[in-house]
Amino acid sequence: MNKTDLSKFDNSWYKPGGKVKRTLWYFLNFFFLKSFLPYPSSFKVLILKVFGAKIGKGVVIKPDVNIKYPWFLEIGDNSWIGEGVWIDNIAQVKIGSNVCVSQGSYILTGNHDYKKESFDLMVKPVVIEDGVWVGAKSVVCPGVTLKSHSILSVGSVLTADTEEYAVYKGNPAVKVRKRVIG
User: Fold this and answer.
1) pLDDT above 90 for 96
2) Which of 28, 27, 25 is CA-nearest to residue 16?
3) Measured in whole angstroms, how far is the alpha carbon of residue 130 from the centre of its chain?
4) What is the CATH classification number for the domain harbouring 105?
5) Cβ atoms 142, 160 nearer than 8 A
6) Which residues, in sequence order, are CB contacts of 144 under 8 Å at separation 6+?
7) What are 43-69's pLDDT values in tens digits?
8) Nearest to residue 63, comparing CAs of 76, 81, 79?
9) How far apart (Å, rounded) are the C-alpha atoms in residues 144 and 123?
10) Rounded CA gap, 89 and 99, in Å?
């Protein structure tokens, strides 16, 4: 039976951006987005746009938000990113309009192939369509699409696509009811 051998790990194929760009972003992210100081959202949005993020109007970004690579980020109009959110986007993350990503949520786009002894890096984009609510402390896994106006309840782990206007809960998250907006 084969064993994992991390000495064989090689992600040299993965090129997320130049070293200078990534280093500069690391410090700006640390001092202005991950900060607990209440810098205005407009200032944070400006910094993200300078680094290639595509961000709409009226976006709110709370303190202590961690964004891996802004050049792999797109956010529509009037969306909210809550305190302590980590967007670990080593691949594209597209967040629609009128989306609420609540505090402490984790959006990840990378994983490892545990079936290979070299534990290869795997990257897959995440899409969060318009009107979605990602509940506090939830995890959105790589390659997942949250369809229009779906909800991921507090503390849930989403490993597969949702249906439109549906509420998901648990680990792994399963559909528990339809979402009705009155």
Assistant:
1) yes
2) 25
3) 15
4) 2.160.10.10
5) no
6) 126, 127, 158, 159, 160, 161, 162
7) 999 999 999 999 999 999 999 999 999
8) 81
9) 12
10) 17
Q: Give the Cα separation of 43 and 104 in Å (integer).
A: 21
CA distance 167 to 169: 7
Question: Does residue 50 sit in helix, strand or coil?
Answer: helix
DSSP code, position 31: I
The answer to whether position 8 is within a domain reads: no
Q: Is residue 7 part of a domain?
A: no
Domain assignment of residue 173, given as a range: 17-178
Render pLDDT for 102-139 as a digit per residue (tens, 0 to 9).
999 999 999 999 999 999 999 999 999 999 999 999 99
Q: What global pTM score does this model have? A: 0.96
